[in-house]
């Protein structure tokens, strides 16, 4: 259910008997909101000290300084609270007039009407119930993908799903946008998902690696954040790596990224986008034909090399995957391909990779090929060797600390109702004497039919538009068939799908299909503008919460203290869903809130459970204090790593004994050839890594457009978050999203630095501001993801959201990941009068 498995494992806890003690504390906390001074909280971008004056936020800065690397995201809390906010509950005019015929085609263009909160709650409860009665639970979609805010209690997506489960069930989704391809292919190859797993520890890398390769990876940007909250030690280790003259750094990326600029001594190699698999095959071919690969490792630790070789050598298709063959595809000289391969086998080499190149057509291939290459090099499981798919993310490789992990709110299970429509319990709970009580369930009990009814309809997350447009369509997914449900009600919180999903124009059509769309949002994002009913939501600075930092390191427990009063009529997601429960069915709220728990009850409950667990570790000296003391001191609890975690080597045990410590693959070995995938019989993902031509790329015949657009993750935002802050002034060009174009290309197109340009293809068009630079290779442009879509009035996105131009097809039938880094576009100087930017303006509000 939850993408970051690291955070899972909330044990079911005893219910609090007297809720009142912590309520008292909550009241105290509210009264004592600091009017002048500093408050500690945390965001995805780290622990923050927020400065308050007369009850208003002045500014914010990092709570601690762990590295010299500047993280701009940490300084804009003021705008996060006061800018572009939704003030009141709002309903789209046509929806309010007639929810049964709400003119969905007007979504995004219609006028809005302010309504009373209680009325909005009643409306949503009534229409949700109506949809379920008419079309069943499988017509309610609450997958609600997105990055929300940090905090284990006010976790908007889980809070939504808790409500949707308890009130009857919903359709969810599978996988995520980040690693859609890799997280499905890697279990077949390595027996684990790899992408969200701890890496060989940094101290081991710094001690042993002689070559560090960063393949399609920009940690200087992407390590600014973490799923929980950044612990910031990832940066520290990259700084140490830079100081080390004895470790060679090689960066493979079409773009001269922040990371390439930081490692100014590094070798920077710029392949044609989406061709890395070919380059890797060229390396493998050379290693094989020259006999310079680790034959013992291949024999002892891998499966199916013999069935891959005929392809590598060209016996199956008359095309040997030689360095010369690869060079023609990836644009890297064959000599360089060979010398790199030889460097890797003859030095202890860590192949680090980001995820950009698997967010592309046939995105299953590059990481599968990388694992195969790493196998031939033969250093997997050795100190400082092998590969790692998470050094760029959430402080991967920062040694795991000894201590505790704070639990979080869970999605509960599906509710059961009596004939009168009253809530009577779930498979593991019941309402007894007006109280919610948990029941013991016997393991192995049959799962009731109503419980699986909706989960069977879950579809891969990035197929959302396809699913909305094609109810009943059957698709292939990782060896299974999935039938799209007929979705008529969408509830989204904590995400910005009108920005994050590919091919916005198709997506807009899809969002105009269901009868009802409800969104909880702090800001007037494009997704809020595409809804029928909008609840203004608090930001994390307007409520109390608790989080860990460093998804793998588990370094700190941070109190996230309410900084200021709630903005206008905004409410916590928890409050909104509690009120929806009350309006939906008798006694439902008892289950939702476990008999009335408030934010502090949950915070304390999670903290206490961890405190107890930590105290039960023999002879463990730690900083944790009883909850009240912890909360009052306004400081994080910090745990330390152990000698064992400092020395930890990924796959070290497998290396020592591959029989005893077999991998979770069918063969127990690294699968270069997968019989499981072979049996699926897919034409777009075969049984071993292969080069497939992407649907659009620079080397194709009859290119539909001239430039390859990469839309990587923005350095100065978290996706679309922080878009509306004044940090935007630092990077916007011509008041639009900057687009990087190579000097030579710009000259040919008559484009100058700072020009307003039109980027377009058959799918759509956007305006952007030109940055003319050799930081991007010729024929490639860079337009980062996350600019708020601004095309509701004209069809042309005036702000420069790249997803207007990307392709909405799956990576392959295996993983169905998104392919946002695969798209050809044209670019020209914009002629005529520049249209006004409206991305950050309120929609039309009539009453
Ligand atoms: N072209 C292209 N597209 C991409 C990508 C790419 O590389 N290229 N990357 C993809 C990837 S990996 C990802 S993860 C996605 C990211 O896409 P999203 O996760 O959808 O992006 P965010 O901007 O983080 O959206 C989070 C939203 O939640 C809101 N929010 C924050 N806190 C709360 C809260 O407490 N309650 C509620 N109700 N709302 C809250 C924020 O205001 C914001 O609007 O984008 C994907 N799209
Ligand atoms: N500051 C900041 N940090 C973030 C995020 C953010 O929005 N802002 N988002 C977070 C999230 S949700 C995620 S999923 C991760 C994303 O982490 P990644 O997916 O690793 O990030 P990207 O920026 O998409 O891609 C990384 C690099 O790959 C390069 N690249 C793209 N295509 C190719 C290719 O075909 N070949 C090669 N060799 N390189 C290629 C890009 O130019 C880029 O420099 O980042 C996380 N960190
Ligand atoms: Mo992501």
Automatic annotation (TrEMBL):
Pfam families: Molybdopterin, Molybdopterin_N, Molydop_binding. Residues 85-582 form the Molybdopterin oxidoreductase domain. GO terms for molecular function: trimethylamine-N-oxide reductase (cytochrome c) activity. SUPFAM superfamilies: ADC-like (SSF50692), Formate dehydrogenase/DMSO reductase, domains 1-3 (SSF53706). Residues 707-821 form the Molybdopterin dinucleotide-binding domain. Its cofactor is Mo-bis(molybdopterin guanine dinucleotide). It is an enzyme of class 1 (oxidoreductase). Keywords: Metal-binding, Molybdenum, Oxidoreductase, Periplasm, Signal. Residues 1-26 form the signal peptide. Its EC number is 1.7.2.3. Residues 41-82 form the Molybdopterin oxidoreductase N-terminal domain. InterPro entries: Asp_de-COase-like_dom_sf, CT_DMSOR/BSOR/TMAOR, Molybdopterin_N, MoPterin_dinucl-bd_dom, Mopterin_OxRdtase, Mopterin_OxRdtase_prok_CS, Prok_Mopterin_Oxidored. PANTHER family: TRIMETHYLAMINE-N-OXIDE REDUCTASE (PTHR43742), TRIMETHYLAMINE-N-OXIDE REDUCTASE 2 (PTHR43742:SF10). This is Trimethylamine-N-oxide reductase 2. The gene is torZ.
